[in-house]
Design goal:
single chain, about 425 residues, Rieske Iron-sulfur Protein, Naphthalene 1,2-dioxygenase Alpha Subunit, Chain A, domain 1, 2 domains, 8-stranded antiparallel sheet, 4-stranded antiparallel sheet, disordered N terminus
């Protein structure tokens, strides 16, 4: 029997039972199907427009297993180009970032401009009249689009537009993008690390409120030590909290923060001398958006998952994180800090301190999380235990952030894509 025709998920909504077959975390055939059915069909985050702010600026990176170039052309248009020479295939951009008018292949010196056009071919007179430079330009993915500065690419020409694909996630991207009237920017620098675990474990972990207290006890102890008031507050079930299925596999948990937010939510460790500044910033948000939306932007945190592999954690700092499987039990992770373009040096230092202290590869949270994911992966070697349970809160009318609605939203969409008959997909594409 074709394994791809089997369901990986038990989803009994009447009984309140949701389970995932652990083969989804270990089977090489499953990963091969994921590459075709998920990563080749969905919109994948490439980068932020602020990373290429000037003509000629570029970033080269692997995106869902493919080498790509994010570049702003000499016409100021931001493009995504596949990093492979159309002659014989070599990478044309070998640096991670920079500014260049052209990209030259090191193999035979074919040269492309910042729009991807072929502008130089040594010995071009050796080719026949059938050779056309226009036919040999660097190739772009079939679809590229931008929402609020976040740039995505899709390899399925028949896929829905990015706007429709994002569905309810647009509201939460707006809450992030509206934190500055002048726009948001990726802060210089990047976190790059790996984990010996399946990539979908990090999807689950990224908005799993249930693990917070048992896994991150050191961090909550640290908060108390530096003067964050936790007494009388239930950080696991705050007074304002919700988990939301945003459609198309996207989901979010939004909640009241016990810790401060550099945007406009002051707490004692930020310093008494900063209290008036934070109050003035908050006043401006109230004037721009009204009290309720300003409260959500300034005081609440959110862990947003955009299917399949983009996570934006807007908590004590804003982290943009992507990850991709190298093998069923190994993934590569990249993360960046996002901040208001007009942020002061003092606010930026505070933000980056929060970013590194909690979410850095050597911070309080990330090593704990990586250890737990790798521990899960090691546990999957016990093949006699075939299913993982993700049923928590399934019968609740209003699931909390410590329930698992957000994970079920991901898994339902993942399972749909992985088990949808190929004939049906072909008809839809036609």
């Amino acid at each position: 029997m074709d394994k791809s025709a089997e369901s990986y998920v038990i989803d009994d909504q009447d009984a309140g039972l949701f389970r995932v077959n652990r083969r989804a975390f270990t089977d090489p055939e499953c990963l091969a199907d994921e590459r075709r059915r998920v990563f080749d069909k969905c919109w994948i985050y490439v980068g932020h427009e602020s990373e290429v702010s000037h003509a000629g600026d570029y970033r080269s990176r692997n995106v869902a297993g493919r080498p790509m170039i994010l570049v702003r052309g000499d016409d100021s248009v931001v493009r995504v180009l596949l990093n492979t020479c159309t002659h014989r295939g070599s990478l044309v951009c070998r640096q991670k970032s920079g500014n260049a008018k052209t990209f030259q292949c090191p193999y035979h010196a074919w040269t492309f401009n910042s729009r991807g056009q072929l502008v130089g071919v040594p010995g071009e007179d050796s080719y026949s009249e059938a050779f056309k430079r226009d036919d040999m330009a660097l190739v772009a993915p079939p679809q590229v689009d931008n929402y609020r500065g976040f740039i995505f690419a899709c390899f399925d020409p028949a896929a829905d537009s990015l706007y429709d694909y994002l569905a309810g996630a647009r509201e939460y991207l707006d809450l992030v993008a509206d934190q500055s009237e002048l726009g948001m920017k990726i802060v210089s620098g990047q976190q790059a690390y790996s984990a010996r675990a399946n990539w979908k474990l990090l999807v689950e972990n990224s908005y799993d409120g249930y693990h917070g207290l048992p896994t991150h006890q050191r961090y909550f102890g640290f908060l108390s030590d530096i003067g964050v008031e936790l007494k009388g507050r239930d950080v696991a079930t705050p007074s304002y909290q919700k988990a939301v299925d945003l459609g198309n596999g996207h989901a979010v948990v939004e909640y009241e923060s016990a810790w401060g937010r550099p945007i406009a939510h002051w707490v004692a460790p930020f310093g008494e001398h900063r209290k008036a500044h934070f109050a003035e910033v908050r006043r401006r948000f109230d004037a721009r958006f009204g009290a309720e939306r300003a409260r959500r932007i300034c005081e609440t945190s959110r862990n947003l998952g955009i299917f399949p592999n983009l996570v934006i954690n807007d908590i004590m700092a804003i982290t943009v994180r992507t990850f991709y499987p190298v093998s069923p039990d190994y993934m590569e992770v990249n993360a960046w800090a996002l901040a208001p373009a007009d942020e002061s040096a003092e606010d930026s230092a505070l933000r980056l301190d929060n970013f590194l202290t909690f979410l850095g590869p050597g911070g309080f949270a990330t090593p704990d999380d990586v250890e737990m994911l790798e521990s899960c992966q090691r546990g999957f070697a016990n093949r006699e235990v075939g299913w993982s349970d993700i049923s928590r809160g399934m019968k609740r009318e209003h699931p909390s952030i410590t329930d698992e609605l957000q994970m079920r939203a991901f898994w339902r969409r993942w399972n749909q894509l992985m088990t949808e008959p190929r004939l049906k997909r072909a008809r839809k594409a036609a």
